[in-house]
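Ticket #4471: structure export looks truncated?
Reporter: QA, pipeline team
Priority: medium

Steps to reproduce: submit the single chain below to the structure queue and open the exported record.
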Amino acid sequence: MYLKFFGLLEKPFNATPDPRFLYMSPGHREALAQLHYGTQERKGFIVLTGKVGTGKTTLLHALRQRLDGNTAVSFIFNSTLPFDDMLEYVLADLGIAKREESRAQRIMAFNDFLIERERARQNTVLIIDEAQNLSPETMEQVRLLSNFETATTKLLQILLVGQPELKAKLDLPELRQLKQRVGLRCQIPPLTVEEARQYIRNRLRIAGARDLGIFTDSAIERMTEYSGGIPRVINILGDHCLLFGYADQTRRIDRSSVNEAIEYLEEGMPTQRKILSITAGDSAAALAVVRQDLGGCTGSGGDRARSQPRRRRGCGEYLRVAPTGGDAMSNVLQGARAGRARQRGAGIAGGPAGHGRGRGRRRLKR
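Actual output as written to the record:
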């Protein structure tokens, strides 16, 4: 929607963990170096922790790309699986022939696979994401997999990746044997203001932007303050800021734009809107949006709206625009802003008396 307006080739703030967009802050760089070293040097258990949204999964994808062709990787995303299902997933992921008989036979097949890879001087890595969700019983079973070893080396490298709660779980008395086997620990810290600035500019550059100063310094400071330096929150906020900037037809995102996006994220629109109809690809397409009062009123807004108290006057108000192409959402957002401004000025949800009927239908400027 806003790509052409800002000169972008793709969205810079996607929520997917695309390693192309990985910004190597000093904390990320150190964590990735430690993970790579730990897997290559066969340290056995490695623990990576970081707050929600700090980029742990993205870092793991980057690690997989850096590992050489002699390293086989099994990546478990669903840490809520019971151990037997987890073991079956690992066997399938590594291409080991399934054995349906018993857990013991599956473990023997896994051991044979690891021994053959060691003879060929090949490494095997098991990554468990969101490991803080593992039950103590499952973690103990995972620990037993680390018993696959020779007199000189570990046959299986296990990466436990999770939120800070993982540290607390490893401190449980029943997991003290697992804690003692952790050969390497690393952590991803939140971004500082300067790191957030470089993070945003890096994503804009990879997305094809020629102008890397779309976000002003004051805007980035506010984004970092609100997000706590968490990249995922910066992504969500940045995407909303670009959308609002497109709606306002401004190519500079300042602090006020960020505050408006934060207000939207925190509270949502003062009204709830339902898109009734939109015909894409038609220059005469019409977009009808119904504004419904949060109090839960229904109906088309005629006599019913007039029969309600003053704060209900906006109930059932229609906003009709006839845009072409991607300007539809821009016009809708502009209309939403106008409605919010009227509501704040009036101090009531539906606006002052007389506004409901006089502004029941508006045609928004393009």
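Status: closed, not a bug. The export was complete when the record was re-opened. Leaving a note from the reviewer for reference: The chain has three domains: 26-188, 198-266, 271-363.
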